[in-house]
Amino acid sequence: MRVPLAIVDYEAGNLTSVLNAIQFMGLQGVVTKDPKVVARADRVIFPGVGAANASMAVLSTSGLGQAVKDAVAAGKPVLGICIGCQIILDHSEEDGGVDCLGILPGRAVRFHAEPGLKIPHMGWNQVEYAMPHPIFKGVEDRSDFYFVHSYHPLMQNHADVAAYCVYGKQRFASAIYRENLIATQFHLEKSGDVGLELLRNFCRWDGKPC
Amino acid sequence: MLTKRVIVCLDVRNRMVTKGVKFEGNVDVGDPVEMGAQYSRDGADELVFYDITASAEKRAIDIEMVKDIAKHVFIPFSVGGGVRNLEDMYDVLLAGAEKVSLNSLAVLNPTIISDGAKAFGRQCMVLGLDAKFVGVSEKFPSGYEVVIQGGRKPMGLDAVKWAKHAEDLGIGEICVNSIDADGTKQGYELNITGQLAQILTVPVIASGGAGTPAHICDLFAKTQADAALIASMVHFGTYSVQQIKADMLKSGLPVRMQR
Q: What contacts A125, CB < 8 A, 6 or more positions away?
C-alpha cells in the first residue's frame, strides 16, 4: 500500500506537532519508525528536536537513516526540519562531534559567542530567501519563522543554501536544498500561517527545485 | 533580527479561561482552544496555559486539553501548573506543548530542572519565578525575594541568586513575575526584570503589571528582556495583540507583524 506522506520517528523529540499541522490542513500523513513504510512513501518529512548524537545512534541501528537516504536518492520530495536539517550533513559538532548522514556537504556548527547574544537562538526571526524555491511560494521574503537551536548548518557550497537568517552578527543558512531535498532550520509546524503555507507547498511539491 | 516576543497568558480552570478581577473573584472569559487559536491569529508570538487549580486539587494537568490546543494552535505554547514530576513533563510535551513551565516544584526540588533538561532539552524548560520586593540586604543583594503559592510563602532566597542557580541547573528560560506589580496595570517591575536580563544568558520574560502598550515598549526600551507576558489587557478586549505590536513597531522595536 502506498503512503502519501511518512513522518520519520527516530525518537528525536515530539512529532505530534508536525502531524497535527498536516492534519489541520486536511492532508494525510503517518508517523512511522518503520524503514519499510518510509520506502513506500511518496514524500518524507524528517523532523526532530534534540541532540544529534542520540539521533544518529537511533538512525543507524533502526535502518531509518538509510531509508531517508534511499528516499532522497529515489527522487522523492524530502523535507528536513531542525535537527533533520543538520543530520543530513556530513558532520555535527554537537556533543563533541558526530558523523551524520552525509547527504549534503556541510557541517552543523555552534553559534559563536557574542557579548549579550543568547544561545540557543530562540524565537521569531526573518528568513531571507537565497533563491525562489517552490516551497516558499506565496510567502513573502523576510517573513518571521520560529527558531530554537544552538547549532546551525555551515554549507560547503553556497549553491546549496535556499535561505539565510541573521542572529547577532552571524549570518547562517536557515534553509538548505539540493534537487528533491529541502531542509529548514526553523520550525514550520510552529511558525503560524507562514509555516503552514510552506508545509502545504511541500506537500504539493513535485521534487523539482525550480 | 530576533524579534521581541509578546506572549499571551491564559489561566485555565475547569477547561475555561478565567481571569481574576479585583474584589470579584474569577470570571470565565472563554474556551482555551478557541482563545488560543484567536490570539495566534491576532499575532501572539507564543501562548502560555496555566492550569490554575491542578496544583491545589493535587492532580495532573488536563492532558486532553493540551492535545486539543496542539491540534489547533501552530505557534509555540507552554503549559504550567500542576507539573509534579518528570512523567508529567513528558506527558505535556508529548501532547504537543513546546515548553513546560515550572514554579513551586523547582524551588522545592531544584534537581527537577537538571533532570528535565537532560531528558527533554533545556529549551523546553521554563522557570516561573515569583519575586517580591524586600529591600536590598546582605541576604537579598538584588532586593527581591523568591516567593511561592501566589506570593503567600516567602522562601528566603534571593531572586537573582535563585535564577542564576536555575540557569546553571539547565533551565532554558526564566519568566519573572513581580508579585508587587501583578494586577496593578501600572507597568512591569523594571528593576528585577532588568537585573535578571542583564545577568542571565537565557531569555527573560517579564510578567505582571502590564496595562497598556506603552508599558511593553517601556520594558523593552529600559531592559534587555526578551519577551513580555500579557493577560488581562487583551482578555477583556481593551487592546488587541496587533495594536500592541503596532505600537512596538512605532517605537522602533524588532517585532513580528502578521502579513
A: A144, A145, A147, A165, A166, A167, A186, B1, B2, B3
Q: Which helix (H) or strand (E) holds A59?
A: helix A52-62
Cβ atoms of B176 and B131 within 8 Å: the answer is yes
Under an 8 Å CB criterion, which residues of B touch A?
A: 1-3, 5, 40, 45, 67, 70-72, 74-76, 93-96, 98, 120-121, 123, 172-173, 201-203, 224, 226-227, 256, 258-259
Half-sphere exposure of B35 (CA within 13 A, CB side): 26
The full set of domains in chain B, from first to last, is 5-250 (3.20.20.70)
> Residue B112: what residue type?
I
- Which single residue is written with the C-alpha cell 505557534? B75
The backbone torsions φ and ψ at residue B242, rounded to the nearest 5 degrees and listed phi first, read: -60, -40
Whole-number Å distance between alpha carbons of A143 and A138? 11
Three-class secondary structure of residue A141 per DSSP? coil
Confidence of residue A84 (pLDDT cuts 50, 70, 90): very high
- Which residue on chain A is closest to B254 by alpha carbon? A125
Plot region of B148 (φ>0 → left; ψ -120 to 50 → alpha; else → beta): beta
Helix, strand and coil content of chain B, in percent to the nearest 5, comes to 35, 25, 40
At B21, is the pLDDT very low, low, confident or very high (cuts 50, 70, 90)? low
pLDDT, tens only, A196-209: 999 999 999 999 87
**Closest listed residue to residue B190, CA positions, set B204, B203, B202:** B204
Asked if residue B249 has pLDDT above 90, the reply is: yes
With the C-alpha atoms ordered B73, B76, B81, B84, is the resulting torsion angle positive or negative?
Answer: positive
The answer to whether B5 contacts A123, with C-beta atoms less than 8 Å apart, is yes
What domains appear along chain A, each with residue ranges and CATH number?
3-204 (3.40.50.880)
Q: Which residue has the cell 522523492?
A: A76
Q: What phi and psi, each to the nearest 5 degrees, are found at residue B12?
A: -120, 135
Amino acid at B198: Q
What's the ipTM?
A: 0.93
Query: Distance (Å) from the C-alpha of residue A141 to the closest C-alpha of chain B?
Result: 11
